[in-house]
Amino acid sequence: MTATTTSARSDLSDLGRTEATLRAFLHGLPGVDQVGAEQRAAMLSTRSIKTSAKAWAIDLAIRMVDLTTLEGADTPGKVRALSAKAQRPDPADPTCPPVAAVCVYPAMVPVAAEALAGSNVHLASVATAFPSGQAPLPVKIADTEAAVAAGADEIDMVINRGAFLSGRYREVYDEIVAVKAACGDAHLKVILETGELATYDNVRRASWLAMLAGGDFIKTSTGKVPVAATLPVTLVMLEAVRDFRAATGRQVGVKPAGGIRTTKDAIKYLVTVNETAGEDWLHPDWFRFGASTLLNDLLMQRTKLSTGTYPGPDYFTLD
Fold it and tell me: Where would one find coiled-coil regions in this protein (predicted)?
């Protein structure tokens, strides 16, 4: 480790001590070139890949899916069915890989934990007054601790966007630090709700804030607002995790969520990951798709590649 790296790490570790130092750092980050980011994302979305690479990309995308149900009408039966599908996405093809995780509300964690027992599929739970993030910190901590105690090994927390947009960065930072502590050994994904952050500069600042506070992943969206994941926003977040690792030596994952429905879309994201952050992020430990409908399209495309026949939309279970 060089002296420069050691100094950089020490400086970053001190940033959250005061509102002033945190604000100075976040507002000192380079501004995002909006036109450049959107043009680069558009260019990357036109990249094509060979058929052999497409088969590999589809299996990788399946392994990256956080299969999600976050509805008020969720039932134990639905969660058990989703958990079974997560482990065997295509029951007719044992070579099909499992997904990365099942993501549910805290109340459904015990059901999912029982259904996923003995598998390698992670159990994620949204917490901290999802999706609004508008609850007192003790409530958010209790929400997180209850989900972890029930079996969740990943927590998807949502930041208080009102505090962030009001410039109360230390408040957001302290909440993330506290929730991370409540997670224990569970990984923490910090949801920025980028559709409400208004600018790419805010997305970059929120990304760095979440990473400085200890987030293991930064996630675009709850899926509960009109504008969810977009390719330019994800590109900005990938640049942030790349630069954060260069500055600190710590790697942080990225999870776009909401609105990613087709294999074509998923491949665009994988190309963007490779070209922006690099191959190190092409792994479920470092990149996830938050999705409910994406998996079925990936399975249909996978079947088409292996059999030459494109199955109907109702061939696989609808989640």
Answer: none
Sign of the Cα pseudo-torsion (27, 29, 30, 32, in order)? negative
Q: Between β-strands 217-219 and 101-104, what pairing exists: parallel, antiparallel or unpaired?
A: unpaired
Q: Is residue 294 part of a domain?
A: yes
pLDDT 10s digit of each residue in the chain, 319 long?
333 344 444 468 788 889 999 999 999 999 999 999 999 999 999 988 887 799 999 999 999 999 999 999 999 999 999 999 999 999 999 999 999 999 999 999 999 999 999 999 999 999 999 999 999 999 999 999 999 999 999 999 999 999 999 999 999 999 999 999 999 999 999 999 999 999 999 999 999 999 999 999 999 999 898 888 999 999 999 999 999 999 999 999 999 999 899 999 999 999 999 999 999 999 999 999 998 889 999 999 999 888 777 776 666 766 6
Buried b (16+ CB within 10 A) or exposed e, 35-53: eebbebbeebbeeeeeeee
Number of domain units in the chain: 1
Please tell me which residue in 66, 255, 265, 268 is annotated as part of the active site.
255
Copy the structure tokens of residue 123: 């159990």
H or E element at residue 313: none
For the domain that residue 274 is a member of, what is the CATH number?
A: 3.20.20.70
Question: Which residue in 180, 189, 219, 268 is the catalytic one?
Answer: 219
219 is a catalytic site residue? yes
Range of the domain at 111: 3-307
- Any domain includes 263: yes
Residue 10 placed within a domain: yes
How far is the C-alpha of 87 from the C-alpha of 186, rounded, in Å?
20
- The token duo for 92 is 């007719």
In a domain, 317, yes or no: no
Quick one: the chain helix, strand, coil %, rounded to 5? 55, 10, 35
Could you say which of 66, 90, 153, 156 is catalytic?
Answer: 156
Measured from the Cβ of residue 1, the count of other Cβ atoms closer than 10 Å reads 7
